[in-house]
Amino acid sequence: MFEFIRNNQKIMQFVLLLFIAPAFALFGLEGYSTASADANALAIVGDYPISQEEFDQVKRERIEEARAQSGDNFDPKVFESPEINRQLLDTLVLQYLLQQSVQKQYLTASDKALAEDIARTPLFQVDGKFDLDTYKRELAARGLTPNQHEANVRFGLARNQVLDPVLRASFFPETLKTQLDDVQLAGRVVRVKSIDLAPYAAKVDITDEQIAAYYDANKSQFMAAQQADVEYVVLSPETIKSKIVVGDADIASYYEQNKARFSTPEERRARHILMDAEKEGASETELKAAAEKVLAELKANPGKFAELAKQYSIDPGSAAQGGDLGFFNKGAMVPEFEQAVFSQKTGALSDLVKSQFGYHIIEVTDIRGGEVQSLDEVKDQIANEIKGQKMTAQYADAQGRFAELVYEGGQSFDNVVQALGVSTSSFNGLTQAAPNAPDILKDAKVMAEIFSADSIESKNNTKAVQVGESMVSARIVNFTPATARPIEEVRNGIVTRLTQDEATRAALKDADALAAKLDADKPAEGSEVLADFSDAKTVSALGAEGLPGLVAQSVLNTGVSELPKAKVIGLGAAGYAVAWVQNSAPSSEIKAKADPQVVQYYENIAGQVYQEALLLAARDAMKKRVEVEIKKTF
């Protein structure tokens, strides 16, 4: 199954869009209805312009959804194709068409239908029943208010009234499915003979005259690259930093000013019991009284904290652990909770602490951290930080000075070395391919300066070039121009190439002759001419029985009306294959023998394609009621 999917990536990319496009329909369009100037619109649907910003936002969302669905198999290049961009824009247009069709037809959904739809949503249910607290919590987690969500759902229900005829018709007619199967899945029965190049190559005898002729005609292939022995200097932030000296007094002063930075953050471990502060059917007074009752029981029996947390706490993350929240530092909890925790002593119980989540009863169980490191412990760290700060201030001036000095130095870096304390380095045999060169010399800008006509001719220092945070200048000490390598150095390569060419021509000649004989004789099963061919194999869109991809593709491209037909397929260095495509195999036979998961996958694709066609037809019908102008082509 997975081999089939790998070999049909274009289909997979198309299906990806079919699956993610409906994601637009999950929410109302108020988030995308901000009007922008028509002149900058990608499309105008009735009174609504679709802006580039809106399109980009939707595209980013679709990319993130696809990334989440596909994991490591996600390829962002899928979204770079014009086809995908057109489909995304079409989907936005369709949503606006739906929105305006709903408005023009004054469609809406009743309060009863709205309530029933929300109640049926599994996300808002507990034990199969709608739960109001869960509903509010899940919406809040998604940044939605109940009013916003209900408006979205109401629009969706109204929109479905427009699409209802399409949705009812979205079953895949059996007759159409059969016709599509016959076109897409009908197989070909084929026998194949491989023609290896090795026997032909063994008979080839290449002469000196052939070698010389090939060498003279293709000298550009055998040129040794120009190369240079170079000297260079590099100015980096570390060069400046290494020259800076920091005194003990500066280190001590820095330590006193930043002592808080050298303290390990205080962390506290706490446990809590969380009880309702708001609940349908109960007053605030009743809920607070219930929490105070538990607090009183705890004060009377402190050892029952874990037991009561498991019994009463509504915090699902900590209740099962007896209310334990583990260690945390400041900033990890809501302000009311944090203030209580970091003001308590270990083992003490808090009074009721009210937060947005309810009433908390808190006990701090452990404290760690908060110790200040000594000056000796952080002395080296501080010295390094001070050097870094001073280096930042000095480096910009040093860069300007470096550029001036390498220009003034002519054919020497002595003045740069003396003024800035840099050191010279050298590299011999530098070429523009530069596989073994230092990374800084491999930079394209540096390479262009070194091998410029002026640098080669004058051997002066190149201008200073910025590479990352560093600057570099180089000069050529010795230069060797590009020259043709001697024929003896490349002789073996030429012989290999000429042998391959002649073997290929001879093999192709025999393959063409065999194919012509097959087409002329149309041999029956058991014929002598087919003796060296493989057993009959069936090739289809659902499988190729181990045949090379090039062979399978060529065989499947053979029209039924052409059969039987011989085909010659080039396999590169592996030679040729002669395929005798004998007859077709009906789609029913192909499906019966294929992996059921692959067949189901194919049928799902076909059904999705059919439903997409119906949606496009619905879109075209809506365009008759709402004017659409597409202003951007991809």
TrEMBL record:
Record's keyword annotation contains Hydrolase: no
Membrane topology listed for this record: Single-pass type II membrane protein
Keywords on record: Cell inner membrane, Cell membrane, Chaperone, Isomerase, Membrane, Rotamase, Transmembrane, Transmembrane helix
Domain PpiC: 265-366
Subcellular location(s) per record: Cell inner membrane
Family to which this protein belongs: Belongs to the PpiD chaperone family.
PANTHER family: PEPTIDYL-PROLYL CIS-TRANS ISOMERASE D, PERIPLASMIC CHAPERONE PPID
Name of the featured protein: Periplasmic chaperone PpiD
Native source species: Limnobacter parvus
